[in-house]
Amino acid sequence: MLITHDTRCALDTVVDLVNTAPEDESAPDGLPDVAALDAFVRNHQISDVGALSEFDLSAVRKVRGRFAAVFAAPETRAAAGLINELVAAAGTTPRLTDHDGYDWHVHYFAPGASVADHLAADCGMALAFFVVAGERERLRRCEAPDCRRAFVDLSRNRSRRYCDSRTCGNRLHVAAYRARRKEAAG
């Protein structure tokens, strides 16, 4: 599957956005305040975003929850419905642009859109491309029992199971190895 630069950036952004959500009520929110949202916008080089407010923070958290539901959808039809709702609510307005040294690409948010609508439109369309390509199963959650972080499996054979093989995957493999050694030692 060919993934353009802007689609890849949108996929990275949506994964990072979903992963800012607390995994349970005791965990901290990765977007605790407007300053954190501003840092998220800058880190992901989200263009055409003005001054942010508490309203923007609340709206982005709602969009984040809707994106999380896409990753949790039990089947493609449900994911497609959620993506359609996100993109429609954002007032999608496709337009060609070549800003900030990037070649021509498509933005799906309307000029002057809120950051939440911007994320819903561009990230929603990136997820839509995966559904259209028959690749929705690549939108995953980490299989480590103590981690449920979202990720997009871009491996050639669709075999990635962990959000990060160096942390979650390695930790589980080491634990399994130690359990086998302990059992063998009797």
Describe the structure.
By secondary structure, this protein is mainly α. The chain has one domain (5-185): Jann2411-like fold, CATH 1.10.3300. It is 52% helix and 6% strand. Strand 1 (95-97) and strand 2 (105-107) form a beta hairpin. The longest helix is centred in the last third of the chain and has 21 residues, at 165-185.
Query: Helix content range of the residues, please?
Result: 40-55%
Alpha plus pi helix count: 6
Give me the count of strands.
Answer: 4
* CATH class type: Mainly Alpha
Main sheet: strand order: 1-2
At the third CATH level, what is the topology name? Answer: Jann2411-like fold
* Major sheet: 2 strands, antiparallel
Overall geometry: globular
Mean pLDDT over the residues: 89
Quick rundown:
By secondary structure, the chain is mainly alpha-helical. It has one domain: Jann2411-like fold (Orthogonal Bundle). Helix content is 52%, strand content 6%.
Highlighted features:
ABATE, single chain, ABATE_dom_sf, Znf_CGNR, 186 residues, Jann2411-like fold, mainly alpha, two-stranded antiparallel ribbon, two-stranded antiparallel sheet, Zinc finger CGNR domain-containing protein, 6 helices
What is the topology?
Elements: H1 5-18, H2 34-43, H3 54-72, H4 76-89, E1 95-97, E2 105-107, H5 115-132, E3 139-141, E4 150-152, H6 165-185
Antiparallel strand pairs: 1-2, 3-4
Helix pairs in contact: 1-5, 3-4, 3-5, 4-5
